[in-house]
Amino acid sequence: MSKNLVVVESPTKAKTISKILGQDYTVVSSMGHIIDLPQKELGVDVENKFKPEYVVIPSRKKLMTQLKKDAKGKDRIYVATDPDREGEAIGWQIKEKIFKGKDVLRVSFHEITPHAVGEAFKSARQFDANMIEAQIGRRVLDRIVGYFLSPLLWKKLARGLSAGRVQSVALRLIVERERQIQAFCPSEYWEISAELSKPKISGETDFCAKLEKIDGKKAEIKTREAAQEIVDELKDKEFKVLEIRQTEKKRYAPAPFITSTMQQEAFNKLRFNASKTMLVAQQLYEGVDIGGDNPLSLITYMRTDSPNIAPEAISEVREHIGRIFGKDFLPASPNVFKAKKSAQQAHEAIRPSYISRSPESMKDFLTHDQLRLYELIYNRFLASQMKPAEFLATAVDIAAEKYLFTANGSHLLFEGFLAAYNKSEEEGKNGEEEEKDKNKNIIPPLTQGETLALNKLVPSQHFTKPPARFSDSSLVKALEEEGIGRPSTYAPIIYTLILRDYVRRIKGYLNPTELGFKVNDMLVEYFPKIIDVKFTALMEDELDEIEEGRLKRVEVLKEFYAPFKERLDFAQANIKKEVVFTDQICEKCGKPFIVKWGKRGKFLSCSGFPACKNSRSITSGVKCPIENCGGELVERRSKRGFFYGCSNFPKCTFTSRTLPESKE
Ligand SMILES: [Zn+2]
Ligand SMILES: [Zn+2]
User: Fold this and answer.
1) Which pLDDT score, from 0 to 100, does residue 202 have?
2) Could you tell me the distance, in angstroms and rounded to a whole number, from the CA of residue 659 to the centre of ligand 2?
3) In terms of pLDDT, which residue wins out, 597 or 575?
4) Alpha carbon of 640 to ligand 2 centroid (Å)
5) Residues, Cβ < 5 Å to ion ligand 1
6) In the chain, where does the domain assigned CATH 1.10.290.10 lie?
7) Ligand in nearest proximity to the CA of 631
8) Which one of 208, 354, 378, 543 counts the least CB within 10 Å of its CB?
9) Distance 623 CA to ligand 2 centre (A)
10) For the domain bounded by 4-127, which CATH number is listed?
11) Which ligand is nearest to the CA of 647?
C-alpha cells in the first residue's frame, strides 16, 4: 500500500500525475469544489464581517466519505490542485472539510512534467491564506450582487432573470457598442488609385499609387461626379517620381501566450470561441493519452497572465530553434517580455511542456481541435524566442501637377520569427485592408525625377464604417485593456451572457438581444456605479491586493457594500414594472397585447390580464421544418440558453439553436 495520498481536482489530471509519482503515491480526484454558498439563500452574514456560510455540495457527500477512507493509514496528504486562487481555495476546502486536524500540505506546479512535479513535492508548503481570502472575497462580492440584483430584474422585467457583477459590465460594453452601430451614419467617400509602370513595360510590373493630396491638402472626394472630374483631368497629366523614402522596419516576435492572447488568437485563427479554447487547453494540460495507457500533459497551466518562461524551457527552445531554423534565427540573448503590473510573477506563460513533442509527432494522439490548438501554442512559443522579421518599406511620392500620389510597398528582407508563426491581423478594425495590400504592391526600382507611364486610373467608392461588433476575441481584449476580468473569468463571462440570452453569438459576433438591452438599461439606470467599467476594474485590483496581503477582505467588501446598499434600497422602493404595448389587439376582449418575458421566453399577453388570460407566442415567421406540422418557430429560453421551438409544442417537439434558414 502506498504511503501518500495526493488529491487533485480532476480524474484525468489524477491519472497523469499518478504516472509521474509512481507507486508510493495514491492520486485521487475531488471533482472540483466540495463546498459552496447555499443555492437558495444569500449565505453571507453581512452584519458579521461578511462571513460566508458555506455548505457541502450535496452531490459531493459520497465523495467526501470516500476521500476520508482513502486517507486512512497514509503518512502524508498532499493537495495538488491548480496553481491559482481557485485551486488554492478548492485545496483548502478539502483540508478543512475532509482532513481537518491532519497534516495536509499544498503542492503547486505550472506544468505536469516529472521535473516540475518533483520540484513541487520537494517544496510542499502550507496553504496561502491571502490567496484563499481573495477567492472568498470574489465569491462573496459576486454573490451579494447576484442575489440582490436578480429580484429587481424580476420585478421590472421577468422572473428567472439574473445579473452578475462582471458580466453586467461586459454586457454594458456590448450594448453600448450596439448603440454606436445603430446611431452610425455611413458617409460616402471616393479614392482614386493610379496603376503606374516604368515606360514601355506595363502589365506585370504595374504598381499602385493612391491619390493623397490635391494642392497640398488631403484629398477629400465625396461624390462620383467629383471623382470622375479628377480622373478626366488626370488622364493626360505627366506622372513624375518626386521622392523615394526607404526605411528598414523590424517586426518583433510576439510574447508567448497568456490566457487572453491565446483566446484572441484561437478565435482569429481557428474560430474557437473562448470557452472552447479553454476546454481544449485544459485537455492538453491535464493529459492526453499517447498510447500504452500513458497520459502526458502537453502544455503548461492555461490560466495565467504572466509571459514568464522557466529558464530550462528557454534553453531547450533556443537549442531547438538553432537546430531547426539555424543560428541566424536565434537572438543573442533570450527575448524577455514584460508582464502587466497585476500579473503573478510566479506564474508562467502557456507553452508546450516538451519542445521535442512537435505537433506533427503528436497528431495520431490528439483530436483535430487539440492538434490545432497545440500547434498554435507550440509555434507561438517557438516564435517568441526568435529574431524579429525585417522589412524594407518603400514609400514613393508621385506628382501629377497639383495631384500627389503615394505608392507604398514592403519587401521582406529576413523572415525571422515569421518562419514559425504568422500572427493574424487583428479583426474588427476598419481600414486594415490597405495594410495588407501594401505587401502585394511591388514597386520597381525608381529614380527621382523619372517619368512614369499611366496605365489606368481607378476611382473607387467607399463608405465610412461603424465600429465592429465585439467578437470573443475583441471582447476579451477590451476586458483585459479595461482591467476587468482575469484569466479565469474571460470565458465564463461570455458564456454566461449567452446562456442568459442577453447576447447571441451570430457568425462569431456578439449581438445584444432585446432582453440584453433591457437588463442593461435597468442596471445603468439604478446601479450606474456597480456596472461602471472603472469601478469594476478597481474592485478587481483590490481583490488582487487581498491576494498580495496588502488589503483585508472585509475592508474591500465594506467599501463595496455601503454604496451598493444605498442604490439597492432606492431601486427596491422605486422600480416599476415595464409595460411594452404592441399594436396587436386581443381577439377576446379588444384590449392591446403587451410584451412579457416568461420563464420560457418572450410572449404576448393581453393587457386585460388577469381578467383576460389570452396570450400569444411571438413567432419568427419561419415554418417548422417537421412535415405536416404547420407550426411556426418561436423564441424560447431554458436553463441551457436560448433556442427556437415549435409553436405546436407539446404536440411537436422540434427545437433548434438557430433558424433553419440562417447559415450561422
Ligand atoms: Zn384579452
Ligand atoms: Zn412543429
Assistant:
1) 54
2) 13
3) 575
4) 21
5) 586, 588-589, 606, 608, 612, 614
6) 259-384
7) 2
8) 354
9) 8
10) 3.40.50.140
11) 2
Catalytic residue among 25, 78, 285, 301: 301
Q: CATH number for 188-252+389-463: choose from 2.70.20.10, 3.20.20.140, 3.90.1170.40, 1.10.10.10.
A: 2.70.20.10
Output the CA 588–ligand 1 centroid distance in Å. Answer: 5
**Sheet strands (E) in 401-528:** 403-414, 451-463, 503-506, 509-512
Across the chain, what does the average pLDDT equal? 91
Q: Please give the grid coordinates belonging to residue 4.
A: 501518500
The C-alpha cell of 124 is what? 510542499
243-286 confidence digits (pLDDT tens): 999 999 999 999 999 999 999 999 999 999 999 999 999 999 99
Ligand nearest to the CA of 585: 1
Class (C level, CATH) for 144-183+469-574: mainly alpha
Q: Where in the chain is the domain with CATH 3.40.50.140?
A: 4-127
Q: Give the Cα separation of 510 and 585 in Å (integer).
A: 34
- 478 to 165, 359, 541: CA distances (angstroms): 17, 31, 16
Cα of 649 vs centre of ligand 2, distance in Å, is: 7
Q: Name the segment(s) of the chain with CATH classification 2.70.20.10.
A: 188-252+389-463
Q: Could you report the per-residue pLDDT of 617-652, keeping only the tens digit for each?
A: 887 788 888 888 888 888 887 777 778 888 888 899
CB 467 within 8 A of CB 503: no
**pLDDT at residue 317 is higher than 90:** yes
CA 514, 518, 521, 523 dihedral sign is negative
Say yes or no: domain 259-384 is CATH 1.10.290.10: yes
Start and end residues for every CATH 1.10.460.10 domain found in the chain? 144-183+469-574
pLDDT-based confidence at residue 204 (cuts at 50, 70, 90)? low
Phi/psi at 193 (5° precision): -120, 150
Find the ligand nearest to 619 CA. Answer: 2
Q: Check whether 430 has a pLDDT greater than 50.
A: no
CA of 367 to the centre of ligand 2 (A): 36
C-alpha gyration radius of the chain: 30
Q: Tell me, what's the pLDDT at 168?
A: 96
pTM here is: 0.89
Ligand sitting nearest the alpha carbon of 612: 1
Distance 648 CA to ligand 2 centre (A): 6
Measured in angstroms, how far is the CA atom of residue 603 from the centroid of ligand 1?
A: 14
Q: What distance in angstroms lies between residue 598's CA and the mean position of ligand 1's atoms?
A: 18
Q: Give the pLDDT score at 643.
A: 85
Q: pLDDT tens digits, residue range 174-198?
A: 999 999 999 999 999 999 999 998 8
Q: Which cell numbers in the block locate residue 79?
A: 493537495
Residue 301 bears catalytic tag: yes
Asked if 165 and 530 count as a contact pair (C-beta separation under 8 A), the reply is yes
Q: Which of 113-117, 343-347, 410-414, 473-477 has the lowest mean pLDDT?
A: 343-347
Amino acid identity of 501? D
Residues in the chain: 664
